[in-house]
Design goal:
The complex is a heterodimer of chains A (187) and B (710). By secondary structure, chain A is an alpha/beta fold. Chain A has seven helices and twelve strands. Chain A is globular, with a radius of gyration of 16 Å. Chain B has three domains: 244 residues, Rossmann fold (3-Layer(aba) Sandwich), CATH 3.40.50.10420; 175 residues, Glutathione S-transferase Yfyf (Class Pi), Chain A, domain 2, CATH 1.20.1050; 105 residues, 3-Layer(aba) Sandwich (Rossmann fold). Helices cover 50% and strands 12% of the residues of chain B. In chain B, a hairpin with a 2-residue loop joins strand 11 and strand 12. The chains are: A alpha/beta (187), B alpha/beta (710). Chains A and B meet through helix 5, helix 6, strand 9 and strand 10 of A and helix 2, helix 8, helix 10, helix 11 and helix 12 of B. Strand 9 of chain A pairs antiparallel with strand 9 of chain B, so a sheet runs across the interface. The complex binds iron/sulfur cluster (2 copies).
């Protein structure tokens, strides 16, 4: 149980992110599979999903998933991401105070899946939610990592007449999947 | 003032889209800003920012070297230069060497400051802005009008027109569709670009990190897809430590857009792999362009604490009328005026510095704690030192500088105004002077000034003595306000002295950059007011009070008068504004209100200097309530009325709409009286109400309180 979850959820939803919480890995995977189906992911052009695999998927799960969802790939390329409908990645930390996800994004595939497709599904362990940015910067340290990404809600602009519009250059939807028993999965 | 500048103001004022958009925005902004700061101690955050940025600007050289060493150790190339031309040379040479044909940019004010796009275009390299607002501006061949929202001056119809003409015909003025269109058109540009250019919001010396903040996600694409990343960073973005990031990112999004955090923040500390596996080329240009000169200037150093949140634009009553373009090409608003004077040249600020009405609205909200109006006055002063005062101003100040001449001219005015006078107002002035009476009536100069009438008031003797500094308006136009003040203080058993040697407080001279004249005024007044031992020096004009309390000291410091400093400090300590003094006397039981009075509904206008410099806003309200009034607060009660001394003479076209807005807010309360603590505001608001034929009375608190005490 993470005491910061409720605050995180409130803040993230206030900036149009969609937050879902599951007790374990299997429930979370079931949700993602159903979501991909509902989003119309398939092997048709422009309908794929790209998953930049993290510890969440260790074990032999990726083969199984690929078989279940045609159009899903774990080989993240520039072209593949640009043509994909959904990008999936795992986040390292979250900030309750602002509803933010944080990631060591040094690997380019992590940025490709979270910038190019119109939908981004982000996985995070419930125990990874910290109170503020200070705590995160002690764990993801700029003196060690070359690219740290903070993501707070989907891409937005208000540049025309100050009217808030979601989804300019980045994803228009951010689906946050919070998993309680996250560590156990990677063990 | 150049004709071109006047015309740009006219154009802006007559653009209903602009004034409408900015007006609505400034209203919504205050609400969303306040909400974003809920639960945050803004004062504590800005103290931290001042500490971080203040110490950074004392150490630019060392921090820049440290940044360079840290970033290079991680594999970036760092180029330091003071010269904008060298920035362009460096980038163009790099582009040539690497065969760059296409460039994408995320928002960078530093690149705009040096007109980088033009350099690319001349070199035949395709360059596209990717921030939506910047892209629109680029397509429209315009410059940004706001530091955070570059295209705020354009309507969706205008944007559609630009897209139709410059990109692809057939677009409809539907904002979500326009945004989608921009996404579709810019996406291939990101994918094809050979070089990405960004700025940075923060540069951390200890780790060589760049912190880049965006909402659209374009900076993430610009730093991910092209193989070369060039960041252009003004050295004022340097901070020492990683832990300095948090306070700045606590304030920046909250103050800029009312967000807790922008959608994206990227911290880049070294080259990352490209999509083909090669390492990215990361070039960081640390640009000085007069920033270190600024850091060495004891007055202007504080402007380097700016985090470019644009609050000072959003809350500025002048900016919301004229927008950004009148200020120039890159930096706009109050802070933009200062930056333009330094990054470009002092002369470039000659016209635009005059736009600041000195209301101080930006000061309490600036996350960098920059006293913009004070810095703008200093620009004004330096411009006068450099170029001299205009002949007209010179003539005026040579009179103000000579008390006897000044006062006899004012007395004479009461005779010469006769043909234009009707009742208590001057109705029409001939020729060019008519601008002054165009949007409000002017008060007639009183037949007998206060300095004469006061002699006829029998006063209690032998008890406490207080000196009264009347100021020109009360002395010569509104002596009845002074008489009321004497009456009230007499009820507390206090004798009010009127030191004859007092003269103009020097504010008009100071606000016009004529510091030598202001210093002379200060000297004369200090001598007159400290002549007799008194417990307080009271004034019922907040501008005069501020002059006595703070400006004399500052003026002496600026012009290097040292021998009068002690006396100025003594005067400062004794000076008090009318409402604060009366509130004190009431609290001490020395003045007692008549009981059981029901005086009805009034509204109260906060004068800029009283509220923001003297910090008195509750005192007058408390007094008016205790007297028996109910206060119906008006919308934007503490927004400037547009008077600001000679401002309303110099820029009547701006003063008039500011007044108009104030009058509307007053009328909307349904109160029959509007009360305020400043005779200048009374002159402006009373004149405006008279011109409108409104039955509402504008009064000074001192008039309202006369006869209310036992
Ligand atoms: S001067 Fe202050 S309010 Fe204006 S942009 Fe800079 S930090 Fe913001
Ligand atoms: S003092 Fe008033 S007029 Fe001057 S920049 Fe600040 S808000 Fe604008």
């Amino acid at each position: 149980m993470n005491s910061h979850f409720e605050a995180f959820k409130t803040r993230a939803e206030a900036v149009s992110a969609e937050v879902h919480r599951f007790t374990g890995k299997e429930e979370a995977l079931a949700f993602i599979l159903a979501f991909l189906k509902e989003a119309g992911v398939s092997d048709a052009p422009e309908c794929g999903a790209v998953w930049s695999a993290g510890p969440f998927l260790e074990g032999a799960r990726s083969e199984e998933l690929r078989a279940k969802v045609p159009g899903l790939t774990f080989e993240v390329t520039r072209e593949g991401s640009a043509a994909a409908k959904v990008g999936i990645s795992q986040m390292d930390w979250a900030i309750a105070g602002t509803g933010t996800l944080v990631q060591d994004a040094t690997g380019v595939e992590k940025r490709l899946v979270s910038t190019l497709p119109p939908i981004h599904v982000a996985l995070i362990g419930a125990d990874r939610i910290l109170e503020d940015m200070g705590g995160v910067l002690e764990r993801l340290r700029p003196d060690q990592l070359n690219y740290i990404s903070f993501i707070t809600g989907p891409s937005r602009t208000a540049d025309i007449e100050r009217v808030l519009t979601i989804g300019v250059h980045g994803p228009g939807r951010l689906i946050i999947v919070v998993v309680d028993a996250f560590e156990e999965v990677t063990a | 003032m150049t004709t071109q500048f006047r015309e740009s103001i006219e154009t802006a004022l007559h653009n209903p889209n602009l004034t409408g958009a900015l007006g609505r925005f400034s209203e919504a902004y205050r609400i969303s800003r306040a909400k974003a700061y809920e639960g945050i101690d803004f004062e504590a955050v800005r103290d931290q920012i001042v500490e971080i940025k203040g110490s950074a600007s004392s150490n630019f050289e060392a921090l820049a070297e440290q940044f360079k060493a840290s970033a290079e150790a991680r594999g970036a190339k760092v180029f330091r230069t003071a010269d904008p031309a060298q920035v362009k040379q460096y980038i163009l040479a790099l582009a040539k060497e690497k065969g760059v044909e296409r460039v994408v940019k995320s928002k960078s004010m530093a690149s705009e400051e040096i007109h980088l796009n033009k350099a690319f275009e001349q070199a035949g390299i395709e360059v596209d802005e990717t921030d939506l607002g910047e892209w629109i501006i680029q397509l429209a061949h315009q410059t940004p009008s706001h530091m955070v929202m570059p295209a705020i001056h354009m309507t969706k119809e205008e944007v559609t027109e630009v897209f139709n003409q410059e990109v692809e015909a057939g677009q409809a003025p539907d904002i979500p569709k326009l945004v989608k269109f921009a996404r579709a058109k810019l996406r291939p540009k990101f994918l094809q670009a050979d070089m990405g250019i960004t700025g940075a919001n923060i540069a951390v010396a200890e780790t060589g990190s760049l912190v880049i903040v965006t909402n659209e996600g374009n900076a993430r694409l610009v730093t991910t897809l092209p193989k070369i990343h060039v960041a252009i960073v003004g050295i004022e973005k340097l901070v020492a430590l990683v832990k300095d990031i948090q306070p700045i990112l606590t304030a920046l999004p909250r103050s800029a857009t009312g967000q807790l955090l922008t959608s994206y923040v990227s911290i880049i500390s070294g080259p990352v792999p490209n999509t083909d596996g090669s390492p990215k080329e990361l070039h960081i240009i640390l640009m000085d362009n007069h920033r270190s000169d600024m850091a060495k200037d004891p007055v202007f150093k504080e402007a380097l604490q700016c985090i470019r949140c644009a609050t000072c634009l959003n809350v500025c009553p002048v900016f919301r009328l004229v927008g950004g373009h009148v200020f120039g090409k890159t930096y706009t608003g109050g802070i933009g005026t200062i930056l333009t004077a330094w990054f470009d040249e002092l002369k470039k600020s000659e016209d635009i510095q005059g736009l600041c009405i000195q209301c101080g609205s930006c000061v309490p909200l600036c996350p960098g704690k920059i006293d913009i109006p004070r810095l703008i006055l200093e620009l004004r002063r330096r411009l006068v030192v450099e170029n001299g005062q205009s002949l007209a101003m010179k003539a005026i100040f040579s009179v103000v500088n000579n008390r006897r001449l000044f006062h006899s001219m004012l007395r004479m005015a009461s005779v010469t105004q006769k043909p234009f006078k009707q009742g208590r107002f001057i109705r029409h002035l001939p020729l060019f002077l008519s601008d002054m009476t165009d949007f409000r009536s002017l008060p007639a100069v009183a037949a007998v000034p206060l300095r004469d009438t006061i002699k006829n008031i029998p006063q209690p003797k032998g008890g406490e003595k207080i000196a009264f500094f009347a100021g020109c308006l009360i002395d010569f136009c509104y002596p009845e306000m002074g008489e009321s003040l004497v009456n009230i203080l007499n009820k507390a058993g206090i004798e009010v002295l009127f030191p004859e040697g007092q003269t103009c407080c020097g504010a008009p001279a100071r606000y016009n950059g004529a510091y030598e004249v202001a210093a002379q005024n200060a000297q004369d007044n200090i001598k007159a007011l400290l002549e007799t031992e008194v417990s307080y020096v009271v004034s019922a004009c907040p501008t005069c009070t501020v002059a006595l309390k703070y400006d004399f000291l500052d003026t002496f410091k600026s012009v290097g008068v040292t021998d009068a400093m002690e006396a100025a400090k003594e005067l400062s300590a004794k000076t008090i504004d009318f409402s604060t003094l009366i509130k004190k006397l009431v609290d001490e039981g020395r003045l007692t209100f008549k009981e059981g009075e029901e005086l009805g509904k009034i509204t109260y206008h906060d004068s800029c200097h009283l509220k923001r410099t003297l910090k008195a806003s509750e005192e007058p309200r408390e007094l008016l309530k205790q007297a028996g009034h109910e206060i119906a607060e008006m919308y934007e009660c503490d927004t400037c009325c547009g008077m600001a001394g000679s401002y309303s003479l110099k820029l009547p076209e701006i003063s008039a709409p500011i007044l108009e807005r104030k009058l509307k807010n007053i009328k909307d309360t349904g109160a029959s009286k509007v009360v305020m603590d400043c005779p200048g505001c009374v002159m402006q608001i009373r004149g405006g109400l008279d011109k409108d034929g409104s039955p509402i009375h504008a009064e000074h608190t001192v008039e309202r309180l006369a006869d209310r005490f036992k």
